[in-house]
Amino acid sequence: MNLLELLIVPLKVTIGSFQHIMPIVFACGFTVFLITYAKTKLTATQQEKTIQYLGWFISITLISFHIYRIGFDNYNFKTDLPLYLCSLMALLLPIFTTKRKFWMFEILVFWIIGGTLQAVITPDITTGFPSFDYFRYWIVHLGLLSVIFYFIVVFKMRPNLKSVFKSFLALQGYVLTMVALNYVLDANYFYLNEKPKSASILDYFGEWPYYILVVQLSVIPLFLIIYLPFYFLGKSKTT
User: Are 109 and 159 in contact (CB under 8 A)?
Assistant: First the structure.
């Protein structure tokens, strides 16, 4: 493969590769800068507007990708609808960043840290840089993490113990909805009928349907682990 082909043909994303690590490093730097700048330089109104702009940017990126796929690619409603959890959250970001409702935060904080972080560690991307799918994937997943940490640090939002169970129950509602849609569409959204083709943590949980049961049993312990730093932070402020 010559240099021109390397520039044109999207490279495959593998765990630990340059294409995997670089967007994570960039997003970490961007998030730290954004939060620091917002806390030190922006008024309360400007802080709210900034996160709204970021929410819209992430959501529009996702919508544009699907419009592009519908117009110029073989769009498949069984596999390509934005119904996976991270895509659905990205679509809802403009509402979340505008309304800033606590009940939304206490659900999303566990979904994003528990689910999106796993998608960042083990990316499921069909094509790599410089494809539209590559940029869509990282903007959505890393953008979700940037938004939730902005809410935690800038707006000082904190989940409580009840939030763990609210988020879990909301997740069950999502799962039941996906079960119904998968049946109607003969699809595999949320990987309820088959594990992803790429490497993921589900590979350690057995075959279908056992990995679904293992995931369900691990959700509350995982959410409790995510909650622990908030618990200890709250305890330290009261002593």
Answer: yes
Decide if 19 is inside a domain: yes
Domain assignment of residue 172, yes or no: yes
- Reported as a single tens digit per residue, the pLDDT across 220-239 is 999 999 999 999 887 766 65
In a domain, 1, yes or no: no
pLDDT tens, residue by residue, 83-99: 989 999 999 999 999 99
Candidates 34, 61, 55, 33; CA nearest to 108 is 55
CB 44 within 8 A of CB 100: no
Is residue 217 packed enough to be buried (19+ CB in 10 Å), middle (13-18) or exposed (0-12)?
exposed
Token pair recorded at residue 215: 């995931």
Q: How many helices (H) and strands (E) does the chain have?
A: 9, 0
- The total number of structural domains that make up the chain: 1
147: phi then psi, degrees, rounded to nearest 5: -65, -45
Compute φ and ψ for 81, nearest 5 degrees.
Answer: -65, 145
What domain range includes position 89?
A: 11-238
Alpha-carbon span 82 to 173, nearest angstrom: 17
